[in-house]
Amino acid sequence: MYLEQLRTTDKIAGHFGCNGTTVLRHLRRFKIPVRRRGPCIDGNLGRRRPVITIVSKDADLLETVRHCLGLTTPVRDHRGGYGHHCSRLRWQDRALYEWFCEIGLSPAKSLTLRPLTVPDRYFADFFRGCIDGDGSVLVYTDRYHATKCERYIYERLYVSIVSASYAFIEWLRTTVHRLTSVNGSIGARQRPGTNPLWKLRYAKAESIQLLRWMYYASDVPCLRRKRAKAEKFLCPLGHTPTGRTGRPRVGWLYNGAQHK
């Protein structure tokens, strides 16, 4: 119910006549990763049948999957935790299912995920898919030191991805470094009674290099809203005004010709 049908703990509790806390206790007892409350955004392989399921709040991402795989299965509405609406794409494909298993994927993969057999020539596409699914492209303006000087304003950029599997995150970091010379850093957070969640994060200069590597062409399949955040960082770097104050700003002005 939880892994394949993507039911919430409250719905499972209602089915068995217990409360949600009991369901959560048994999930943790059997080391089944607990989804965050809110919209369910995940993908999984069926345990007993060759069924592949992807649930996301971004219906356009699922439509991209349909287009790339030539699927006729429709994208359907799906209700996640707390009643939030998501979209779900679910289809049966034994050949694709078995290929996923051969390269290292498995049902209930969150904790068991290990390095996958991904050829180097496809790794930028694979990494982009990871960012679209379990990662983020964070852009914001940091005004923390603006009280000291009005020019101490910086635009921050972080590309990051999270996973419950340290082995998978370390493999991602190592492979990306081998292919791009970008390092990144790994951190962890953990709440009592839960497994640690590992985050691979890249700061601004490295993120700019990563984004250009991921989005190597304008028509690569991707999640549009994350591509939109990355768009200005894909342009050639411009220049900063002379005599600036504060720390050096990596790529502070991204298209100098448009800002002159």
3D structure, described in words:
The chain is an alpha+beta fold. It contains 10 helices and 8 strands. It has helices spanning 9-16, 20-29, 59-69, 94-103, 109-112, 123-134, 166-180, 204-214, 224-230, 256-259; strands spanning 42-45, 51-56, 76-79, 85-92, 135-142, 154-163, 185-189, 197-202. The strands form 2 sheets. Strands 1-2-4-3 form a 4-stranded antiparallel sheet, covered by helices on one side. Strand 1 (42-45) and strand 2 form a beta hairpin. Helix 1 (9-16) packs across helix 2 (20-29). The longest helix has 15 residues, at 166-180. It is globular. The termini are far apart. Residues 238-260 have low confidence and may be disordered.
**What do the pLDDT scores average to?**
82
Helix content: 25-40%
**Termini gap:** 58 Å
Work out the number of β strands: 8
| Gross geometry | globular
Strand content: 15-25%
User: What Rg is obtained from the alpha carbons, in whole angstroms?
Assistant: 21 Å
Q: Look at the helices and sheets and give the structural class.
A: alpha+beta
Sheet of most strands? 4 strands, antiparallel
Order of helices and strands: HHEEHEEHHHEEHEEHHH
Strand line-up in the sheet with most strands? 1-2-4-3
Low-confidence segments, given as residue ranges, are 238-260
Number of helices: 10
What is this structure's SSE topology?
Blueprint lengths: L8 H8 L3 H10 L12 E4 L5 E6 L2 H11 L6 E4 L5 E8 L1 H10 L5 H4 L10 H12 E8 L11 E10 L2 H15 L4 E5 L7 E6 L1 H11 L9 H7 L25 H4 L1
Antiparallel strand pairs: 1-2, 2-4, 3-4, 5-6, 6-8, 7-8
Helix pairs in contact: 1-2
